[in-house]
Every structure is written in C-alpha cells, then in structure tokens.
UniProtKB/TrEMBL annotation:
The lineage of its organism: Bacteria, Pseudomonadati, Pseudomonadota, Alphaproteobacteria, Rhodobacterales. Keywords: Cell membrane, Lipoprotein, Membrane, Palmitate, Signal. GO terms for biological process: response to toxic substance. The keyword Chloroplast does not apply. Pfam families: Entericidin. Belongs to the EcnA/EcnB lipoprotein family. InterPro entries: Entericidin. One of its GO terms (cellular component) is membrane. The keyword Signal applies. Residues 1-18 form the signal peptide. This is Entericidin A/B family lipoprotein.
Length: 46
C-alpha cells in the first residue's frame, strides 16, 4: 500500500513539473510572437 502511495505522489510531482515547464515555454513563445507582431506594426506605421 505504501509503495502505491509513494508511486502516485511521485508521478503527480513529475507531471506537475513537466506542466510548469510546458506553460513556461509556451509563455516564452507567446512573448516572442508578441514582440514580432509589435515590430511589424512599428514598421508598418513608418
């Protein structure tokens, strides 16, 4: 019983860490895309 609980907690922790990195990476991608859009908008105004 204890092994099952430890396994489940470990699996949940790993999934949590993986999700955090995925969200962080997605945030960075969105930030880069926003920067590119802003740059294009500035160039279009000139």
């Amino acid at each position: 019983m204890t092994r099952i609980v430890v396994f489940c907690l470990s699996a949940a922790a790993l999934l949590g860490v993986a999700a955090c990195e995925t969200v962080e990476g997605a945030g960075q991608d969105i930030e880069k895309a926003g920067g590119a859009i802003s740059q294009e908008a500035r160039e279009a105004q000139n």
